[in-house]
Amino acid sequence: MIEPQTDPKIRKRREVLTRFLRQEAAAQGFDLCRVTLPDAIPDAPHRLQAFLDAGRHGTMSWMEETKERRADPRVLWSDVRSVVMFGMNYGPDEDPRHLQALPDKAAISVYARNRDYHDVMKGKLKEIATRFAARAGADVKVFVDTAPVMEKPLAAAAGLGWQGKHTNLVSRDFGSWLFLGSLFTTADLEIDAAERDHCGSCRACLDACPTDAFPAPYQIDARRCISYLTIEHKGAIDVALRPAFGNRIYGCDDCLSACPWNKFAAAAREMKLVAREDLKAPDIAFFLTLDDAAFRTHFSGSPVKRIGRDRFVRNVLIAAGNSGSSELVKACEALLGDPSAEVRGMAVWALSQLLEGSHFETLRQAALGHETDESVREEWMRETDRCI
Asked: Could you tell me if 184 and 52 lie in one domain?
């Protein structure tokens, strides 16, 4: 009896199906398409548990709730036989860190400067999945970030790149600028070799982090990460971390931008991922004026929209406080009366950074007479000493 792995007909079928997938991926604009096995990340459960035990996931409780499915694709779907990983380049046409020298401008993470990549990639993956399922006669499922799939370890196992010291995927061809998606299937496919780590002694990404969010190479503490704090974290931001935010209002690209492998990366080809001109270097002042309706209109189709207006303006107020610009004072003062306590509290901090003590004290005395939210009152009282 011929073993499946040596049967020439079976090998040929795997080859044909795998080649078909790669052709479909290229046709849909994906830059990489490689295959791994569902049991290719045996260290994932231990690493994930250690991350959770240390509390480094912050308030992302869903990571704890889905840890079994997240750590093993076979728990997520017991019938899966092959995991296909896709990579799409979203590299910028310039180093986004240049915005740090423009404190009156707002820095939005490169990935969020146009359409939501979840929607862009999932639509493409569904088309591939439909055609592949018909061709292979196999079941398929597609995932883009929102499902409990450890995409970066799986992508490394499939050979798209390796997880760098900043914990993100690094590619020799695309640097740190890859979106990832996956297709799980019951079909048997040709398996690709994993990529080895090429970071060497480099620690550029670690040294670039404004908030020291990396306790050690290959480890991240989300509670200190600007991307987590501006996107996932609800409520007030730790006052000790606010100055380090600079003008970053949605995400942070510093560790990605610092990666030397980016020198091989070309700018994104997918037009829906190319930055909108109005989001490359937007004015902080404009964003401070957005009410909920204007926010939703301005960020229609953008991932920024998902965090909501109040959290977004909270982030913008931190940038305003760090700007040193007296021209933003009036807009910040207007937000002291905002319906959102989250916004009012951060407006207090922004003004504490922009105003002289006497002016701030006048505002403080007036506000404490009617402010009922305890978190906002704490922001006012925190600045008592500087006003004396």
From this structure: yes
